[in-house]
Design a protein that fits this description.
The complex is a heterodimer of chains A (about 110) and B (about 900). With about 110 residues, chain A is α+β, with helices and mostly antiparallel strands. A 3-stranded antiparallel sheet of chain A has the order 1-3-2. In chain A, a hairpin with a 5-residue loop joins strand 2 and strand 3. In chain A, helix 1 packs antiparallel against helix 4. With about 900 residues, chain B is α+β, with helices and mostly antiparallel strands. Chain B is about 55% helix and about 15% strand. Chain B is built from 28 helices and 23 strands. In chain B, strands 3-4-9-6-8-7 form a 6-stranded mixed β-barrel. In chain B, strands 16, 17, 18, 19, 20 and 21 form a 6-stranded mixed sheet that branches. In chain B, a hairpin with a 5-residue loop joins strand 1 and strand 2. Chain B is elongated, with a radius of gyration of 38 Å. The chains are: A alpha+beta (about 110), B alpha+beta (about 900). Chains A and B meet through helix 2, helix 3 and strand 3 of A and helix 1, helix 2 and helix 4 of B.
């Protein structure tokens, strides 16, 4: 549980980056995004799922995502998100800076 | 930025389909929960429903987060809720809200009205282009008052100076203006072309005077009308130019109309005539009749102009080639002051003092507001504690209080503006001519802005500050009903506010008391003659029909006889200048047996040409010699002087038999002094009398004086002016049917005119004092009432233990009176310091006037006792049983 909590805390700051990355593969609704992050992180990252939605809505308001209501695979009404051009650009920038930062942190951690 | 705009656009869209947006949020969250639940159930977990929710987190909080994210202005939502809450709270307590709004409204309203005057009269520049460069130029001698400039002096100054781009001259008078045979009395200004150029305001219609219009030789044939005169007399007809109008019987062509609001030195000029010279005064160095206005060259400062003037004055005689009656640094010389200052004059101090008084009233209202809020806040500890316990943050509570304070203050501001508008209208109606530029005073944007600012500051500072401490208190402590901790601290702050309120009110009340005494003193002042039972009116003899003195003397004597035969009239006389409003016009005069100081000359401050019976009619005692008698009308030239003149020129010697001239011309005949009259206040009852000489108008029969001009008649009578009017009209008509009777009134009214400014001041200041006192009394009453209801239990206990009812009464009374006494003491000390600023506005009373202080102290004790009595009586009637059972 301790390791999970740490991971979750770390996740908060980078939740937006993860959402952008998740949607790079194509449009998804909220539940799919949660599942995708969970699966893609090899089941390490499982966030309090509700926190996803304020983040999604903020990104939508900032114009990085576009949302549209559509019918889901099981024939239900669902809100689908996809990246806008600005969102794609932001994903590229954020990925770059995340890589640089994490590489730096890694170097420090392994520098003994 | 585009990101922001995008968000605003999305939020706006969401706002338009509010219900749909809310449903979308619900659907989205429900969909997620449902999917998770189904997944959990498929994997065989028990309680799939609950686990799905747990995994999701706090649904309610997230829902609120989402709603807030979509709100267009999230804080606005809070604000709306706060306002709604504040309105509800205030409506639950309408008495409190009413008292606060009314007291604040009165305090702020008084300020707004006075600030409107400060703004329009003192701060706004005069309505001329680049008005800061306009200077008034006057002469000054050894006396205290400035006076006018003679034509030769004016011409020389225009020639010599390098500081002014132009200097113009004018002379104010009155005339009978008739168009369509309806004569009316109008204010006139004789002005030269240079004056119009100096003021630099083009006419709204037509043209200015040309230089040749203002030449003194040749008949004046043109006139410029004021906008008001054009509208009232001519109905604003567009074809006014080229029309003609008779002024004092002479027809003149209307060549222009000046724009609305154009005036000169606040005289309210109706008609502008070419002038202001005549063939007699052009060469006369001693004839001080012109008022000058100059426009400083761009870039020249007032100080530079003053420096140039000083160096010109040092060598004036040599520069103009004159040795007699020229400017000298120590004697008679020119001086300049900004025209704005000259227009406003002594009114500036009056207005600032009123502003100070209004500010004090506002402070009283604010202290009262604070004390009431504090008292009420104490009562709301319960509510506060519950809301804190329910999770309201300290900041939210403070915002809530600020909203309440602001709401009260804004309501106060709305009332204030209504009061200021109404108040200003009432003041201008009651005191139309008491202040300069009064017509320009209005509630403009600047006044509105200040009103709003003052109320916002009052609302935030006073509304929140006392509650800061409260909201910090531990909620449990407040909830614990038995906890009566730190009451002494609370009471000290509250009592301090009330004491401060009383102290401030006392300062205003003492100021008002001093002004009341001033007005009483001015009214009682001895003008030097018997002013009751006197009726006066004026005639303006047109030069056209009175070119020489003969028709004048004949007509006036016929009129005097006719008036004497009117029933109820005891005596009749006349004079050129009516006290106590004569202008100070010192004239260089030849005085035998008198050697003026080096470089100086004998100056007579006031000169009067009077009719027979002048001293008897006015009741001026002759202290030596005799008054004018019938035989003087055709006898040798005689004069009567006042005590000041006799003392100034012939100190110690017998004035009777001395010789004096009318002016200083070599050709003028010597007149023998036959009597000395008691000093009469000619120029304001609070001014020194000055040197004065009287001659009999009839004696100038053979002189080359023009017969035209104003002449005042005065009747000693038992009847009122109104009752005498028909007879007077009849008599004047018989003497000269062309003459209108002007300003027929009783002498006491003439004196009231002199008291207009002090009356305005005392009315407003007194009003402010009353206001301050009432607000303070309300404060004492409200706080004591609160104390009594707060201490009901304690009072109940004490009464059960045998305390007498009167003990309770005395206890509460004492509490209130202690605050009042402390306020009285502090206020009196502060007043002793502050009222010194009023010294120049006072007359015959010192700032530390014991009588005023005593009366104010007694009055305060009375008011405070009344304010304390009601709550004290309530304390006395507390029923111990109910009080103890209560809560």
């Amino acid at each position: 549980m301790g390791a999970d909590a740490e991971a979750a805390a770390l996740l908060q700051g980078t939740l937006e980056l993860l959402i952008l990355r998740t949607l790079a593969a194509g449009e998804k609704h909220g539940y799919e995004i949660a599942e995708w992050i969970h699966a893609a992180s090899a089941e390490t990252l499982s966030v309090e799922e509700g926190a996803l939605y304020p983040a999604l809505h903020r990104l939508e308001l900032r114009g990085l995502l576009m949302a549209a209501w559509d019918v889901s695979a099981n024939n239900r009404r669902a809100k689908y998100y996809r990246l806008t051009v600005a969102g794609r650009r932001r994903l590229k920038e954020s990925t770059g800076s995340w890589r640089r930062a994490s590489a730096a942190v890694n170097r420090i951690l392994e520098a003994t | 930025m585009p990101e922001r705009l995008h968000a605003v656009w999305l939020r706006l869209r969401a706002l338009l389909r509010r219900r749909q947006a809310a449903q979308d949020v619900e659907d989205e969250l429900a969909f997620h929960l449902e999917m998770r639940e189904r997944q959990l159930r498929t994997s065989g977990a028990p309680d799939a429903d609950a686990r799905a929710r747990r995994q999701f987190g706090n649904v309610t909080r997230i829902r609120e987060d989402l709603h807030e994210a979509w709100q267009l202005a999230p804080r606005l939502g809070h604000a709306a809720r706060d306002v709604k809450y504040a309105v509800r709270t205030l409506r639950r307590n309408p008495g409190f809200a009413t008292i606060v709004v009314v007291t604040l409204g009165l305090g702020i309203g008084a300020n707004s009205a006075i600030f409107a005057a400060v703004n329009a009269i003192l701060l706004e520049p005069l309505r001329y282009p680049d008005a800061a460069r306009l200077m008034r130029i006057t002469t000054v001698s050894t006396g205290p008052d400035p006076f006018s400039v003679s034509p030769p002096e004016y011409f020389e100054f225009t020639e010599l100076n390098r500081s002014f781009s132009s200097v113009g001259a004018f002379r104010v008078g009155e005339a009978n203006l008739s168009a369509n045979d309806r004569p009316r009395r109008v204010k006139t200004a004789g002005v030269d072309r240079a004056l119009l150029e100096t003021l630099a305001v083009p006419p709204a219609l037509g043209r200015w005077f040309r230089t040749e219009d203002t030449r003194s030789n040749g008949p004046a044939t043109v006139v410029l009308l004021s906008d008001a005169q054009w509208r009232t007399t001519f109905g604003g007809r567009p074809d006014i130019l080229g029309q003609s109008v008779a002024i004092d019987g002479v027809r003149r062509e209307i060549v222009g109309v000046m724009p609305a609001g154009f005036d000169l030195m606040d005289h309210g000029i109706d008609a502008w005539l070419p002038g202001p010279f005549n063939p007699f005064n052009r060469q006369n160095r001693g004839n001080h009749v012109l008022q000058l206005v100059g426009r400083l060259k761009a870039g020249t400062t007032e100080a530079q102009a003053r420096g140039e003037l000083a160096s010109l004055t040092a060598t004036w005689g040599a520069r103009v080639g004159q040795s007699f009656h020229v400017f000298t640094p120590e004697g008679h010389r020119l001086q300049i002051e900004p025209l704005h200052q000259a227009v406003v004059g002594s009114a500036a101090r009056t207005i600032w003092i009123l502003q100070a008084a209004a500010s004090l009233v506002l402070l009283v209202a604010c202290a009262n507001f604070g004390a009431l809020l504090l008292a009420r806040g104490e009562g709301r500890r319960h509510e506060l504690a519950i809301r804190t316990a329910l999770g309201a943050g300290r900041r939210r509570l403070l915002t809530q209080f600020a909203t309440e304070g602001l709401l009260l203050a804004l309501l106060g501001a709305a009332l204030a503006i209504a009061l200021a508008v109404g108040g200003l209208r009432a003041i201008t109606l009651a005191f139309p001519d008491s202040l300069p530029r009064a017509a320009e005073v209005s509630i403009d944007a600047r006044v509105l802005g200040l009103t709003l600012l003052v109320s916002l500051v009052a609302g935030i500072v006073v509304g929140v500050a006392p509650l800061w401490r409260l909201s910090r208190r531990d909620p449990r402590e407040a909830l614990d009903n038995g906890a009566r901790v730190s009451t002494s601290m609370r009471h000290r702050v509250r009592a301090g506010l009330i004491t401060a309120e009383i102290a401030l009110a006392i300062v205003v009340v003492i100021g008002a008391g001093l002004l009341v005494r001033t007005v009483i003193n001015l009214q009682r002042l001895d003008p030097g003659f018997e002013r009751s039972r006197l009726v006066t009116f004026a005639l303006d003899l047109p030069v056209a029909s009175y070119q020489t003195m003969r028709p004048r003397v004949v007509m006036l004597e016929r009129l005097r006889q006719a008036l004497l035969s009117v029933p109820g009239v005891e005596r009749v006389s006349g004079m050129t200048g009516l006290p106590p409003h004569r202008p100070y016009e010192p004239e260089t005069t030849a005085v035998a047996n008198y050697t003026p100081p080096e470089g100086g000359s004998a100056q007579v401050d006031y000169r009067q040409r009077v009719a027979l019976g002048y001293f008897e009619t006015l009741g001026i005692p002759i202290v030596a010699g005799r008054p004018f008698v019938e035989t003087d009308r055709i006898g040798p030239a005689v004069a009567i002087v006042n005590e000041t003149l006799a003392r100034t020129f012939w100190n110690g010697r017998n004035p009777i038999g001395q010789q004096i001239k009318w002016g200083d011309s070599a050709r003028a005949p010597w007149m023998t002094v036959v009597g000395v009259a008691r000093d009469v206040k000619q120029n304001g009852v609070d001014q020194p009398a000055g040197t004065e000489m009287f001659t009999l108008d009839d004696q100038f029969l053979a002189s080359n004086f023009a017969g035209g001009g104003a002449f005042n008649l005065v009747l000693r009578t038992t009847a009122t002016a109104a009752a005498l009017q028909p007879a007077i009209q009849q008599a004047v008509k018989a003497a000269d049917p062309s003459l209108p009777v002007i300003r027929l009134r009783e002498m006491s009214e003439v004196f009231d005119d002199a008291l207009r400014r002090p009356r305005l001041l005392v009315t407003l200041f007194g009003g402010f004092a009353g206001l301050a006192l009432i607000i303070a009394a309300v404060g004492v009453y409200a706080v004591l009432s609160h104390v009594v209801s707060e201490r009901r239990r304690e009072i109940g206990v004490r009464m059960t233990l045998g305390a007498h009812q009167t003990t309770m009464l005395v206890d509460v009374l004492g509490r209130g009176l202690r605050m009042a006494m402390a306020g009285l003491a502090i206020g009196t000390v502060a007043a002793l310091v502050l009222t010194r600023a009023m010294r120049t506005l006072l007359f015959g009373v010192e700032p530390a006037d014991p009588l005023t202080l005593l009366v104010v102290a007694a009055g305060l004790v009375g008011v405070a006792t009344l304010a304390c009595l009601v709550p004290a009586l309530r304390a006395m009637r507390v029923d111990p049983l109910t009080a103890l059972r209560g809560e």
